[in-house]
Amino acid sequence: MTQEELLRQLYDFTLVGNAPEVLSLTNAGLEMGLGPEILLYEALIPSLEEVGARFERGDFFVPEMLIAGKAMAGALEILRPLLAETGAQSIGTIVMGTVKGDVHDIGKNLVNIMFEGAGFQVIDLGVQVAPEKFIDAIRQHQPDIVGFSAFLTTTMPMFKANINALQKAGLRDKVIVMVGGAPVTQEYADVVGADGYAADASAAVVRAKELLQKRRAMTPA
After folding, report:
1. What is the pLDDT of residues 106-122, one digit of tens each?
2. Could you say which of 3.40.50.12780, 2.60.40.420, 3.30.160.20, 3.40.50.280 is the CATH number of the domain covering 92-218?
3. What is the DSSP string of 46-67?
C-alpha cells in the first residue's frame, strides 16, 4: 500500500466510523514512517470536516457524527503523545464542561473530539460542573476559551450564573465564553452575555477559531 492509498483509506474509514480499521491504519501509517501530523492533517481532520459538512447538509445525523468522532478519538489516543513529542503547536486551549445540574455529555464529548482534531488542547471537566470548578480550572490552565454545555432547559440559567462567577473572580475579560447544547439558541447566548454560540460540533470549531483570531488581532503582541 502506498502512502497516498493509506491516507485515502484512513480518510474513508474515519468518515464511516470504522474504529478498528482507523486504529489499524494509524499504526500502519506510523510504521510506514508517516509523521503523526501527516496522519492528522491529511486524513483524520479532513475526514471529520467532511462529516461536519455532511451533517450541516442533512446527509449525516448525530449518530454518524458520534461514530466518526469515536473512530477518530481512538486514533488520537495514539497520536496525542507523539504530537506532544514533535512539539506540534496547539492552536489554543479550551476548558469544557457540562454545567451544574446537568449530566448529559454526548454533545460535549463530540465537541471535544472535534476541537482536539482541529488542533486545540481540551481540558474536559466532565458533567455537573459548578461555577467554582470552572473558575479553578481557568486559573490553573489559563485557557483561551471556556465552553459551557447544557442539554436541559432547566440548566441553561447556569450559563448566566457561570458568567457572573467569572466576573466576580475578575476573569471574564481573560477568556472567550462559548455556550451550546440542544435547547440553546443564539438569542439565548446573547441574552446571557456569551461571546459565542454554535448549533453543532463542527460549527463550534469554526466559531471558536473566528473568536480566537479576532481576540488575538486585538491583543498587542
Report:
1. 778 888 888 887 788 99
2. 3.40.50.280
3. HHHHHHHHHHHHTSS-HHHHHH
